[in-house]
Amino acid sequence: MHLMGLIVVRLETYVAIISCSMAIKHFTYVVVCFLLFLTVPLPLFGQTVARTTLYVDETQGIRRFFYPVEARVPFASGELSDSENVRLLSDGTEIPATYTALEAWPDGSVQWLGVNFNMSIGPLGAASFEVEYGPSVRSVVTAPRGLIVTDDVDSVQVGRIRLSKGGDPLLQSVDFGGETIGVGRNGLRVHDHDGEIFPIDVSSVVFDFVRQGDQFVEVYYTGLIPLSSGEELPFEMSIGMPNSKSWFRVLVSVDDPNDHVRGLSFDTPVSVGALPFVWDFGTDRWTYGSLRNITDEVQLFAPSRTDSTRPWEVETQRDDRREVYEVSTGDSTLSMWGHVQSERVVAFAMEPQSEGDTMHYFSIDGRGQLSMGEETVAARQHRIVVYQHYVSLPVQIGAATSPMSMLYPLVTRVDSERYIDSGVEVPSF
Asked: Residue 396 above 80 pLDDT?
Protein backbone atom coordinates (compact mmCIF):
# COMPACT_ATOMS: atom_id res chain seq x y z
CA MET A 1 0.00 0.00 0.00
CA HIS A 2 1.22 3.46 -0.81
CA LEU A 3 2.38 5.72 2.00
CA MET A 4 -0.45 8.30 1.41
CA GLY A 5 -3.03 5.54 1.58
CA LEU A 6 -1.67 4.31 4.87
CA ILE A 7 -1.76 7.82 6.35
CA VAL A 8 -5.39 8.27 5.27
CA VAL A 9 -6.36 4.93 6.80
CA ARG A 10 -4.57 5.77 10.00
CA LEU A 11 -6.25 9.22 10.23
CA GLU A 12 -9.64 7.63 9.67
CA THR A 13 -8.85 5.15 12.42
CA TYR A 14 -7.79 7.98 14.69
CA VAL A 15 -11.07 9.91 14.08
CA ALA A 16 -13.07 6.79 14.81
CA ILE A 17 -11.15 6.30 18.03
CA ILE A 18 -11.81 9.87 19.17
CA SER A 19 -15.52 9.50 18.38
CA CYS A 20 -15.63 6.34 20.39
CA SER A 21 -13.89 7.91 23.33
CA MET A 22 -16.20 10.93 23.30
CA ALA A 23 -19.18 8.65 23.34
CA ILE A 24 -18.06 7.01 26.55
CA LYS A 25 -16.67 10.31 27.87
CA HIS A 26 -13.46 8.88 29.26
CA PHE A 27 -10.31 10.80 28.44
CA THR A 28 -8.02 7.93 29.39
CA TYR A 29 -9.25 5.88 26.51
CA VAL A 30 -8.38 8.73 24.17
CA VAL A 31 -4.85 8.89 25.45
CA VAL A 32 -4.36 5.13 25.25
CA CYS A 33 -5.75 4.93 21.75
CA PHE A 34 -3.63 7.84 20.59
CA LEU A 35 -0.49 6.19 21.91
CA LEU A 36 -1.38 3.01 20.11
CA PHE A 37 -1.71 5.03 16.91
CA LEU A 38 1.76 6.46 17.39
CA THR A 39 3.36 3.07 18.00
CA VAL A 40 2.16 1.55 14.72
CA PRO A 41 5.16 2.09 12.40
CA LEU A 42 4.86 3.90 9.12
CA PRO A 43 7.30 3.12 6.32
CA LEU A 44 10.50 5.10 6.84
CA PHE A 45 11.62 7.45 4.16
CA GLY A 46 14.86 6.34 2.44
CA GLN A 47 14.59 2.68 3.40
CA THR A 48 14.43 1.50 -0.18
CA VAL A 49 15.91 -1.74 -1.46
CA ALA A 50 17.65 -1.71 -4.84
CA ARG A 51 19.43 -4.32 -6.93
CA THR A 52 22.06 -4.42 -9.62
CA THR A 53 23.21 -7.42 -11.64
CA LEU A 54 26.73 -8.83 -11.39
CA TYR A 55 27.89 -11.04 -14.28
CA VAL A 56 30.60 -13.70 -14.07
CA ASP A 57 32.19 -15.29 -17.14
CA GLU A 58 34.63 -18.18 -17.52
CA THR A 59 36.77 -17.29 -20.55
CA GLN A 60 39.61 -19.84 -20.55
CA GLY A 61 37.80 -23.15 -21.03
CA ILE A 62 38.62 -24.36 -17.50
CA ARG A 63 36.16 -26.03 -15.14
CA ARG A 64 36.24 -24.19 -11.80
CA PHE A 65 35.25 -25.78 -8.50
CA PHE A 66 34.42 -23.52 -5.58
CA TYR A 67 36.52 -20.84 -7.21
CA PRO A 68 37.20 -17.48 -5.51
CA VAL A 69 35.57 -14.57 -7.33
CA GLU A 70 36.73 -10.96 -6.94
CA ALA A 71 34.34 -8.31 -8.20
CA ARG A 72 34.18 -4.51 -8.06
CA VAL A 73 30.77 -2.86 -8.21
CA PRO A 74 30.47 0.94 -8.67
CA PHE A 75 27.96 3.15 -6.86
CA ALA A 76 26.92 6.75 -7.37
CA SER A 77 27.64 9.32 -4.69
CA GLY A 78 25.23 8.83 -1.78
CA GLU A 79 23.74 5.63 -3.20
CA LEU A 80 25.32 3.24 -0.69
CA SER A 81 26.35 4.63 2.68
CA ASP A 82 27.86 1.48 4.20
CA SER A 83 29.26 -1.82 2.87
CA GLU A 84 27.26 -3.62 5.57
CA ASN A 85 24.01 -2.75 3.77
CA VAL A 86 24.57 -5.33 1.01
CA ARG A 87 23.85 -8.96 0.28
CA LEU A 88 24.46 -11.22 -2.73
CA LEU A 89 21.67 -13.31 -4.25
CA SER A 90 21.81 -16.32 -6.55
CA ASP A 91 18.37 -17.20 -7.97
CA GLY A 92 16.82 -15.22 -5.13
CA THR A 93 18.76 -16.98 -2.37
CA GLU A 94 21.50 -15.22 -0.42
CA ILE A 95 25.00 -16.73 -0.67
CA PRO A 96 28.01 -16.01 1.56
CA ALA A 97 30.20 -13.10 0.45
CA THR A 98 32.68 -10.57 1.79
CA TYR A 99 31.89 -6.89 1.14
CA THR A 100 34.53 -4.15 1.31
CA ALA A 101 34.33 -0.43 0.63
CA LEU A 102 37.44 -0.11 -1.55
CA GLU A 103 36.99 3.56 -2.47
CA ALA A 104 34.70 6.29 -1.17
CA TRP A 105 33.12 9.47 -2.51
CA PRO A 106 33.84 12.82 -0.79
CA ASP A 107 30.63 12.45 1.24
CA GLY A 108 31.87 9.13 2.66
CA SER A 109 29.50 6.91 0.70
CA VAL A 110 30.81 3.85 -1.16
CA GLN A 111 32.19 4.47 -4.66
CA TRP A 112 33.65 1.01 -5.34
CA LEU A 113 32.40 -2.04 -3.48
CA GLY A 114 34.57 -5.16 -3.39
CA VAL A 115 32.53 -8.37 -3.48
CA ASN A 116 34.32 -11.67 -2.80
CA PHE A 117 32.59 -15.04 -2.96
CA ASN A 118 33.00 -18.61 -4.25
CA MET A 119 31.29 -20.40 -7.10
CA SER A 120 31.58 -23.41 -9.41
CA ILE A 121 31.26 -22.96 -13.15
CA GLY A 122 31.94 -25.02 -16.27
CA PRO A 123 34.25 -24.21 -19.18
CA LEU A 124 33.22 -21.00 -20.98
CA GLY A 125 30.20 -20.77 -18.68
CA ALA A 126 28.34 -17.63 -17.64
CA ALA A 127 26.37 -16.78 -14.51
CA SER A 128 24.67 -13.78 -12.98
CA PHE A 129 24.02 -12.65 -9.41
CA GLU A 130 21.98 -9.88 -7.84
CA VAL A 131 23.68 -7.38 -5.56
CA GLU A 132 20.93 -6.16 -3.23
CA TYR A 133 21.57 -2.98 -1.27
CA GLY A 134 19.86 -0.32 0.81
CA PRO A 135 19.64 1.03 4.39
CA SER A 136 17.48 -1.88 5.54
CA VAL A 137 19.54 -4.63 3.86
CA ARG A 138 21.64 -6.94 6.04
CA SER A 139 23.55 -10.10 5.17
CA VAL A 140 22.45 -13.06 7.30
CA VAL A 141 24.61 -15.94 5.95
CA THR A 142 28.26 -16.82 6.59
CA ALA A 143 30.75 -19.06 4.84
CA PRO A 144 30.79 -22.67 6.10
CA ARG A 145 34.62 -22.69 6.01
CA GLY A 146 35.38 -19.06 6.62
CA LEU A 147 38.84 -17.63 7.22
CA ILE A 148 39.82 -17.00 10.82
CA VAL A 149 42.14 -14.03 11.34
CA THR A 150 44.40 -13.73 14.39
CA ASP A 151 46.00 -10.31 14.57
CA ASP A 152 49.08 -10.24 16.82
CA VAL A 153 51.60 -7.49 17.52
CA ASP A 154 54.26 -8.64 15.02
CA SER A 155 52.36 -11.09 12.80
CA VAL A 156 48.96 -11.99 11.44
CA GLN A 157 47.51 -15.46 10.98
CA VAL A 158 45.05 -15.73 8.08
CA GLY A 159 43.58 -19.22 7.92
CA ARG A 160 46.63 -21.45 7.59
CA ILE A 161 49.10 -18.78 6.55
CA ARG A 162 51.11 -16.66 8.97
CA LEU A 163 52.75 -13.44 7.77
CA SER A 164 55.08 -11.09 9.56
CA LYS A 165 53.92 -7.49 9.74
CA GLY A 166 57.49 -6.32 9.18
CA GLY A 167 57.61 -8.04 5.79
CA ASP A 168 61.05 -9.69 6.10
CA PRO A 169 61.07 -12.59 6.54
CA LEU A 170 57.55 -12.37 5.13
CA LEU A 171 56.06 -15.85 5.11
CA GLN A 172 56.46 -17.35 8.58
CA SER A 173 54.47 -20.56 8.18
CA VAL A 174 51.91 -22.46 6.13
CA ASP A 175 49.94 -25.49 7.29
CA PHE A 176 47.85 -26.99 4.51
CA GLY A 177 49.49 -30.42 4.65
CA GLY A 178 52.55 -30.42 6.85
CA GLU A 179 54.42 -27.73 4.92
CA THR A 180 57.20 -25.73 6.53
CA ILE A 181 59.15 -22.67 5.49
CA GLY A 182 62.86 -23.11 4.98
CA VAL A 183 65.79 -20.76 5.54
CA GLY A 184 66.69 -18.27 2.84
CA ARG A 185 65.47 -15.16 1.08
CA ASN A 186 61.87 -14.59 2.15
CA GLY A 187 59.87 -11.70 0.74
CA LEU A 188 60.46 -8.76 -1.58
CA ARG A 189 63.91 -7.98 -2.98
CA VAL A 190 65.22 -5.46 -5.50
CA HIS A 191 68.28 -6.03 -7.67
CA ASP A 192 70.47 -3.16 -8.85
CA HIS A 193 72.42 -2.99 -12.11
CA ASP A 194 75.53 -4.39 -10.41
CA GLY A 195 73.73 -7.52 -9.27
CA GLU A 196 73.51 -6.52 -5.60
CA ILE A 197 70.30 -7.57 -3.80
CA PHE A 198 68.47 -5.35 -1.29
CA PRO A 199 65.67 -6.28 1.13
CA ILE A 200 63.06 -3.93 2.51
CA ASP A 201 63.65 -1.80 5.60
CA VAL A 202 61.38 -3.46 8.18
CA SER A 203 61.44 -0.36 10.39
CA SER A 204 59.75 1.64 7.59
CA VAL A 205 56.94 -0.82 6.95
CA VAL A 206 53.31 0.13 7.54
CA PHE A 207 50.89 -2.82 7.66
CA ASP A 208 47.13 -2.69 7.16
CA PHE A 209 44.11 -4.71 6.07
CA VAL A 210 42.47 -3.99 2.70
CA ARG A 211 39.77 -6.66 2.90
CA GLN A 212 38.92 -8.73 5.94
CA GLY A 213 36.08 -11.23 5.74
CA ASP A 214 35.42 -14.94 5.97
CA GLN A 215 35.63 -15.33 2.16
CA PHE A 216 38.75 -13.31 1.41
CA VAL A 217 41.45 -11.42 3.28
CA GLU A 218 43.88 -8.96 1.73
CA VAL A 219 46.72 -7.28 3.62
CA TYR A 220 48.78 -4.32 2.50
CA TYR A 221 52.40 -3.25 3.09
CA THR A 222 54.09 0.05 2.30
CA GLY A 223 57.64 1.07 3.10
CA LEU A 224 61.12 1.78 1.80
CA ILE A 225 63.95 -0.24 0.29
CA PRO A 226 67.36 1.32 1.05
CA LEU A 227 70.10 1.04 -1.59
CA SER A 228 73.87 1.20 -1.12
CA SER A 229 73.80 4.63 -2.80
CA GLY A 230 71.78 5.98 0.12
CA GLU A 231 68.58 6.35 -1.90
CA GLU A 232 65.39 4.79 -0.54
CA LEU A 233 62.84 3.39 -2.96
CA PRO A 234 59.15 3.29 -1.96
CA PHE A 235 57.30 0.02 -2.42
CA GLU A 236 53.75 -1.31 -2.15
CA MET A 237 52.81 -4.95 -1.66
CA SER A 238 49.43 -6.59 -1.16
CA ILE A 239 48.74 -10.25 -0.38
CA GLY A 240 45.31 -11.75 -1.04
CA MET A 241 44.15 -15.05 0.47
CA PRO A 242 40.84 -16.81 -0.35
CA ASN A 243 39.11 -19.25 1.96
CA SER A 244 38.40 -21.83 -0.76
CA LYS A 245 41.93 -22.45 -2.09
CA SER A 246 45.34 -23.08 -0.54
CA TRP A 247 46.99 -20.30 -2.51
CA PHE A 248 47.85 -16.65 -2.09
CA ARG A 249 48.44 -13.82 -4.56
CA VAL A 250 51.08 -11.12 -4.19
CA LEU A 251 51.05 -7.77 -6.02
CA VAL A 252 54.31 -5.82 -5.82
CA SER A 253 55.17 -2.36 -7.08
CA VAL A 254 58.48 -0.49 -6.62
CA ASP A 255 59.01 3.10 -7.73
CA ASP A 256 62.44 3.79 -9.22
CA PRO A 257 62.45 7.34 -10.62
CA ASN A 258 66.24 7.48 -11.09
CA ASP A 259 66.65 4.01 -12.63
CA HIS A 260 68.76 2.48 -9.87
CA VAL A 261 67.05 -0.93 -10.08
CA ARG A 262 67.53 -3.67 -12.64
CA GLY A 263 64.54 -5.64 -11.38
CA LEU A 264 62.76 -7.15 -8.42
CA SER A 265 61.83 -10.57 -7.10
CA PHE A 266 59.49 -12.28 -4.68
CA ASP A 267 61.40 -15.01 -2.86
CA THR A 268 60.22 -17.94 -0.74
CA PRO A 269 62.34 -20.72 0.81
CA VAL A 270 59.92 -23.60 0.24
CA SER A 271 60.25 -26.94 2.00
CA VAL A 272 58.87 -29.85 -0.03
CA GLY A 273 60.86 -32.73 1.46
CA ALA A 274 64.12 -34.50 0.74
CA LEU A 275 66.12 -34.35 -2.47
CA PRO A 276 65.71 -35.01 -5.33
CA PHE A 277 63.19 -32.33 -6.29
CA VAL A 278 61.13 -32.66 -9.45
CA TRP A 279 60.28 -29.44 -11.27
CA ASP A 280 58.19 -28.58 -14.31
CA PHE A 281 57.31 -25.39 -16.19
CA GLY A 282 54.22 -24.40 -18.16
CA THR A 283 55.42 -24.85 -21.71
CA ASP A 284 53.45 -26.57 -24.42
CA ARG A 285 56.15 -29.26 -24.37
CA TRP A 286 55.82 -29.82 -20.60
CA THR A 287 59.42 -28.95 -19.73
CA TYR A 288 60.55 -30.85 -16.62
CA GLY A 289 63.62 -32.13 -14.79
CA SER A 290 65.11 -32.73 -11.32
CA LEU A 291 67.40 -31.15 -8.73
CA ARG A 292 69.57 -33.77 -6.99
CA ASN A 293 72.03 -31.69 -4.96
CA ILE A 294 71.73 -28.51 -2.90
CA THR A 295 73.96 -26.70 -5.39
CA ASP A 296 71.72 -27.59 -8.37
CA GLU A 297 69.58 -24.85 -9.88
CA VAL A 298 67.11 -24.38 -12.71
CA GLN A 299 65.96 -21.06 -14.20
CA LEU A 300 63.33 -20.11 -16.71
CA PHE A 301 63.73 -16.82 -18.60
CA ALA A 302 60.81 -15.44 -20.60
CA PRO A 303 60.60 -12.16 -22.54
CA SER A 304 57.70 -9.74 -22.12
CA ARG A 305 54.44 -10.62 -23.84
CA THR A 306 54.94 -7.86 -26.38
CA ASP A 307 58.37 -9.14 -27.48
CA SER A 308 57.94 -12.06 -29.88
CA THR A 309 61.50 -11.86 -31.24
CA ARG A 310 63.24 -13.48 -28.26
CA PRO A 311 62.71 -17.10 -27.20
CA TRP A 312 62.11 -18.33 -23.71
CA GLU A 313 64.97 -20.36 -22.29
CA VAL A 314 65.53 -22.86 -19.49
CA GLU A 315 69.00 -23.06 -17.95
CA THR A 316 70.32 -25.57 -15.42
CA GLN A 317 73.33 -25.57 -13.16
CA ARG A 318 74.88 -28.79 -11.89
CA ASP A 319 78.39 -29.34 -10.49
CA ASP A 320 79.30 -25.70 -11.24
CA ARG A 321 78.43 -26.25 -14.88
CA ARG A 322 75.75 -24.03 -16.36
CA GLU A 323 74.10 -24.92 -19.64
CA VAL A 324 71.00 -24.31 -21.71
CA TYR A 325 68.48 -27.05 -20.95
CA GLU A 326 65.73 -26.11 -23.41
CA VAL A 327 64.91 -23.19 -25.66
CA SER A 328 61.76 -22.28 -27.53
CA THR A 329 61.24 -22.22 -31.25
CA GLY A 330 58.87 -20.01 -33.19
CA ASP A 331 55.85 -22.25 -32.63
CA SER A 332 56.35 -22.86 -28.90
CA THR A 333 54.22 -21.16 -26.25
CA LEU A 334 54.76 -20.50 -22.60
CA SER A 335 52.56 -19.83 -19.59
CA MET A 336 54.35 -18.53 -16.53
CA TRP A 337 53.70 -21.32 -14.05
CA GLY A 338 55.43 -24.35 -12.62
CA HIS A 339 55.73 -26.89 -9.79
CA VAL A 340 58.46 -28.07 -7.47
CA GLN A 341 57.77 -31.29 -5.59
CA SER A 342 59.18 -34.10 -3.51
CA GLU A 343 57.05 -35.33 -0.60
CA ARG A 344 54.95 -32.14 -0.96
CA VAL A 345 54.19 -29.81 -3.83
CA VAL A 346 54.29 -26.06 -4.31
CA ALA A 347 52.72 -24.66 -7.47
CA PHE A 348 53.71 -21.14 -8.53
CA ALA A 349 52.77 -18.69 -11.22
CA MET A 350 53.52 -15.17 -12.39
CA GLU A 351 51.42 -12.66 -14.30
CA PRO A 352 53.86 -10.49 -16.31
CA GLN A 353 53.20 -6.78 -15.84
CA SER A 354 56.07 -4.90 -17.46
CA GLU A 355 56.21 -4.39 -21.19
CA GLY A 356 59.04 -3.49 -23.52
CA ASP A 357 62.57 -4.79 -22.94
CA THR A 358 61.75 -6.94 -19.90
CA MET A 359 62.67 -10.48 -18.93
CA HIS A 360 60.60 -12.46 -16.42
CA TYR A 361 62.05 -15.46 -14.63
CA PHE A 362 61.63 -18.38 -12.24
CA SER A 363 64.51 -19.79 -10.24
CA ILE A 364 64.59 -22.93 -8.03
CA ASP A 365 67.62 -24.46 -6.34
CA GLY A 366 68.36 -27.61 -4.33
CA ARG A 367 67.96 -25.78 -1.02
CA GLY A 368 64.35 -25.02 -1.90
CA GLN A 369 64.92 -21.35 -2.68
CA LEU A 370 62.17 -20.19 -5.04
CA SER A 371 62.41 -16.80 -6.75
CA MET A 372 60.00 -15.18 -9.18
CA GLY A 373 60.84 -11.82 -10.68
CA GLU A 374 61.53 -9.49 -13.56
CA GLU A 375 64.52 -7.69 -15.04
CA THR A 376 64.29 -4.69 -17.33
CA VAL A 377 66.71 -2.39 -19.11
CA ALA A 378 65.11 0.82 -17.90
CA ALA A 379 61.92 1.44 -15.95
CA ARG A 380 60.58 4.02 -13.54
CA GLN A 381 58.28 1.50 -11.91
CA HIS A 382 58.66 -2.24 -11.47
CA ARG A 383 55.62 -4.50 -10.99
CA ILE A 384 55.02 -8.22 -10.62
CA VAL A 385 52.02 -10.36 -9.69
CA VAL A 386 52.88 -13.82 -8.35
CA TYR A 387 50.98 -16.77 -6.92
CA GLN A 388 51.91 -19.70 -4.72
CA HIS A 389 49.72 -22.73 -4.23
CA TYR A 390 50.32 -25.49 -1.65
CA VAL A 391 48.84 -28.70 -2.99
CA SER A 392 48.81 -32.42 -2.26
CA LEU A 393 50.24 -35.32 -4.22
CA PRO A 394 49.80 -36.47 -6.88
CA VAL A 395 50.09 -33.06 -8.46
CA GLN A 396 47.73 -33.98 -11.31
CA ILE A 397 44.93 -34.34 -8.77
CA GLY A 398 46.04 -31.90 -6.11
CA ALA A 399 46.82 -29.02 -8.46
CA ALA A 400 44.54 -29.98 -11.36
CA THR A 401 44.21 -26.79 -13.41
CA SER A 402 45.13 -24.49 -10.54
CA PRO A 403 48.17 -22.74 -12.10
CA MET A 404 46.13 -21.63 -15.10
CA SER A 405 43.18 -20.89 -12.84
CA MET A 406 45.34 -18.59 -10.77
CA LEU A 407 46.70 -16.77 -13.81
CA TYR A 408 43.30 -16.40 -15.46
CA PRO A 409 40.61 -15.62 -12.86
CA LEU A 410 36.94 -15.42 -13.64
CA VAL A 411 35.88 -12.20 -15.37
CA THR A 412 33.32 -10.05 -13.57
CA ARG A 413 31.33 -7.07 -14.83
CA VAL A 414 28.17 -5.08 -14.41
CA ASP A 415 25.98 -3.43 -17.05
CA SER A 416 27.70 -0.57 -18.85
CA GLU A 417 24.86 1.73 -17.80
CA ARG A 418 25.84 1.03 -14.22
CA TYR A 419 29.26 2.57 -14.72
CA ILE A 420 27.79 5.59 -16.50
CA ASP A 421 25.06 6.19 -13.90
CA SER A 422 27.60 5.83 -11.10
CA GLY A 423 29.85 8.49 -12.56
CA VAL A 424 32.94 6.24 -12.72
CA GLU A 425 35.15 5.28 -15.62
CA VAL A 426 33.96 2.29 -17.64
CA PRO A 427 36.67 -0.41 -17.43
CA SER A 428 38.02 -2.00 -20.59
CA PHE A 429 37.58 -5.77 -20.82
From this structure: no
